What does this fold into?
Amino acid sequence: MFENKINRTELENLGEFGLIEHLKTAIPLKNKGSEKGIGDDAAVINNDGKRTVVSTDMLVEGVHFDLTFHPLKHLGYKAVVVNLSDIYAMNAIPQQILVSMALSNRFSLEAIDELYEGMALACEKYNVDLVGGDTTSSTSGLILSITAIGQAEENEIVYRSGAKENDLLCVTGDLGAAYMGLQILEREKRIFLENPKIQPDLGGNDYILERQLKPEARKETIEKLKELKVIPTSMIDISDGLSSEILHLCKASNLGCDLYEDKIPIDPQTYERAQEFNMDATVCALSGGEDYELLFTIRQEDYETLRPAMDIAIIGHMRDQASGANLIDRSGGSIALRAQGWDALMKR
Amino acid sequence: MFENKINRTELENLGEFGLIEHLKTAIPLKNKGSEKGIGDDAAVINNDGKRTVVSTDMLVEGVHFDLTFHPLKHLGYKAVVVNLSDIYAMNAIPQQILVSMALSNRFSLEAIDELYEGMALACEKYNVDLVGGDTTSSTSGLILSITAIGQAEENEIVYRSGAKENDLLCVTGDLGAAYMGLQILEREKRIFLENPKIQPDLGGNDYILERQLKPEARKETIEKLKELKVIPTSMIDISDGLSSEILHLCKASNLGCDLYEDKIPIDPQTYERAQEFNMDATVCALSGGEDYELLFTIRQEDYETLRPAMDIAIIGHMRDQASGANLIDRSGGSIALRAQGWDALMKR
It folds into this structure.
């Protein structure tokens, strides 16, 4: 009934980050309460008291999860954790979530209860309240949209933009496991679809499967940092793969960095499965995504305080912008880092 | 791959409000900052300063809007306004929004720009900042999830639950027009689909079409109330139709009410079109929905302050719970009010 536009730019040519950049310029901030808008892990709001930190994520069936192998309870848990991870990445403490969902009539009340059971478990574990949301119908599948709200004092908030030259690049836990877990699940799904009589063989993969199906956010890292009174100079959570996140820190802080391949923490199970799949474990860590570990920079003088008290890996250091963002490989060669992480808009 | 549950309760047998009630009990509030959770127009959070008021809504193509007659720019505008309306309904001032969207590859960058143009227009008009969100792909159509954040002093916040016996029941603007606008659009769509050569005849329906396609939230009502220093005893915005909203106020406040049919404000254009469609204009106002007017109760002593300064209709008064919620018709007869508003879960 209404005319169509003649110009047409495909979203896949732009990518998710391109689209965010494009949209960021469209609407300038006006209110004095809006301290930080689009472009970090969360927005920051000033309430003439503590800061409110807010982040939101949308999960779409068939794009972000496959109900063939994501049980609803785990999905509910993961959907909450993924959002809390963004709040922790601002060095804030999550307090509340809002959950919106669209459901097709394929879903029964019992299915929703399972989903909520997982959400309740995450709320319990992370001491977060579910305070609102919206439920509606969908014409196809399940869509979840979760908004997480956290609190922090003004001077505690850590942005992507605060790193300085020579700061140490740190990462919690290990990387690449969630991605390898997904490879296992997708392989077993293919086998199952070809021959439904064959039961999935998931044995020996407990760790990487759990990293994919039921990831955790790094609550204890943020608590420990507060206890040690160390405030990182910059921070981001690893949802799209290490490369992509390092490049975000470099770009926001106008710096370069050296990342040492041999320092990237990778679990033995991730290594073994990568070999099995003829994949390079480093590439899985760099580009795999969904690890929900924290990547942050600290001043060199904070190293002595942090290292004995925390299980973190120092994987490199920040350099000036002209040096670029580099991966130093095992032989000492330097390769420019490239973002090859998940790009949600490519996954159609 | 995973087993299915045997029990199955259909969501349509429960309805949206049934589902909300069911979910509300699942996860109790723990944090002292969570002042109000599920069950009002918005959640209320205490930041040791001003209160943060948060609400979220999900809009699904084919359920909440039809792109055949909702131009993307209007849709963007409406999606924002609908959420701001929830913040105003708490007597708070909206400050920020977060926008998440899932898009199929049917949509180009130019289409998204149109959508954002409408959002930017609403942000501009209501003095709100777009501070974050998420963009992802969808397997079918467009899904929007918007979270609105507002601020208020503790003593200003108005809940659904504060009405007292004999308080006056007030409503802004007029009702039923958005619903009649939708009837016109759906009629013209049917005609167009049957014969694409016939151009849609939308003339003479400007007001009701605008109410459907580009509704406004009642910013000036909240500003005026603050100016007059009148705090309503209870408040809700009319998204599902007057009956449903009145019943929410009655239930939350443990009261009954008398609503006078002849006091319900209805625009002449709504009357005329209702006649044309063989519909009862009162029924459209009671059950139509999407009006985004404010329904609120005031103390009788505030009547003298309010009435000369504001364009509101006094449509009834609150009674004790035992009296029930009643519609007093033009002949003086009393009928029990029933909610027959939009039930999102029925609309599949």
Summary: Confidence is low (pLDDT under 50) at residues 1-5, 341-348 of chain A. Chain A has two domains: 11-156, 160-346.
